[in-house]
Amino acid sequence: MICRPALTRGSQLALRRQGAAKLAQRGFAAVASPTASYEPTTIAGVKVASRDDNGPTTRLAIVAKAGTRYEPAPGLTVGLEEYAFKNTEKRSALRITRESELLGGQLSAYHTREALVLQANFLREDLPYFTELLAEVLSQTRYTTHEYHEEVQQVIQLKQAKVDAAAVALDAAHSAAFHTGLGEPLYPTPNTPISSYLNEHAVAAFAEAAYTKNTIAVIADGASQTGLSKWIEPFFKTVPAQSSTPLTTAASKYHGGEQRIPKIGGNAMVIAFPGAALGANQPEISVLVGLLGGESGIKWSPGFSLLSNATSASPGATAKAANFAYSDAGLLAIQIKGAAPAVRKVAEEAVKSLKSVAEGGVSQETLAKAIAKAKFNLLSASEVTGTGMVHAGANLIHGGQPLQVAETVKALEGVTGDKLKAAAKTLLEGKASVAAVGDLHVLPFAEDLGLKV
């Protein structure tokens, strides 16, 4: 049942108007400043992190230790993702859809290499209903045969067909870097024999191991700890404390290497190096990502970043840098896609740019811009992309603490040109992980770029 107080529609509208009037009376100067960092706690055995800016909407997410790194067989993570918000012991999928739409809520499920995320966005006063729903998805989902064959299997096949050259290259770079664990592809390729491993029974067994109090974290953006405590305690009683068959994986080890995959219909390259793990004190990596950049944030201008300038002479090609942070490892990746000759040229320019940083060729003005970009990326992570919620949850389920934004910003401001130079030099002196996908007759080898693998 919907846990909103049993009021008439007119009464509910009246209360909402009163709330809106109170917000309007506060005026612009009285707008509450948002809390940047998530505050961790434990409620009824469940790891919880929240922050509250007293806004009208809430984002609530379950971050489960069920990413592709932990799946015992290919396809189980995406199978579990597709079963989310379908039939449960209490509600049909149709009822879940109708109730959520009636309350104006949004439901989504997605996964990373380390986590499966079940998320609900809704009006603040509907916290009880969506807390109950998420707990119900964890402990009472029905993994039915007909849904697997009629829906889950079909969606997985559609997603496999949409895997483009850029995604294949990023998976290949992870495979070269870590082999197993983090090296598993984010989505199984069309050539992966998942039918040998994947069915409704295997997904149900994976859910039993992944959906426990030991392997999940509840992350709330726009809810108080008091409100969460009131509803998590009763609704999460049905979630088991632990599984009889816990998920395990070996510690990540960086290897480096090269993969080349022929593909028709797209060209992409990924040049990657060891990056910063979650919670690691390596602010220079974040600043280096800001310096490398990619697409300009200013219209009609290539911007200051090294990669945006590298692509300016190769129309149609795009390049971007990112640090993929995991619980015990990180991967700093330069991702390039476009026509094969353009990808080759941009790859060569990208490595030259990185070498120029290692030789100390970064001015104070450019360094200041890179630091400012790194700060923006950090502070906008939750508001724009939602990655802050995922990182907070991933830290908790792996025994760490959510990112402390104020401390991290201060560390970014302390990055100097010498630190950036040393970081770039260390990357180039070590082994790279290089993946080329597409027209291999044109795309360069790592050796052609002057990289060690």
TrEMBL record:
Domain Peptidase M16 C-terminal: 202-372
Keyword tags: Electron transport, Membrane, Mitochondrion, Mitochondrion inner membrane, Respiratory chain, Transit peptide, Transport
Gene3D superfamilies referenced in this protein's UniProt entry, alphabetically: Metalloenzyme, LuxS/M16 peptidase-like (3.30.830.10)
Molecular functions per Gene Ontology: metal ion binding
Compartments (UniProt record): Mitochondrion inner membrane
Matching Pfam families: Peptidase_M16 (PF00675), Peptidase_M16_C (PF05193)
Membrane topology type: Peripheral membrane protein
Alphabetized SUPFAM superfamilies for the sequence: LuxS/MPP-like metallohydrolase
One GO cellular component term: mitochondrial inner membrane
Main localization category: mitochondrion
The Peptidase M16 N-terminal domain, residue ranges: 47-187
Keyword Isomerase: no
Family that this chain belongs to: Belongs to the peptidase M16 family. UQCRC2/QCR2 subfamily.
Name recorded for this polypeptide: Cytochrome b-c1 complex subunit 2, mitochondrial
Record organism: Chaetomium strumarium
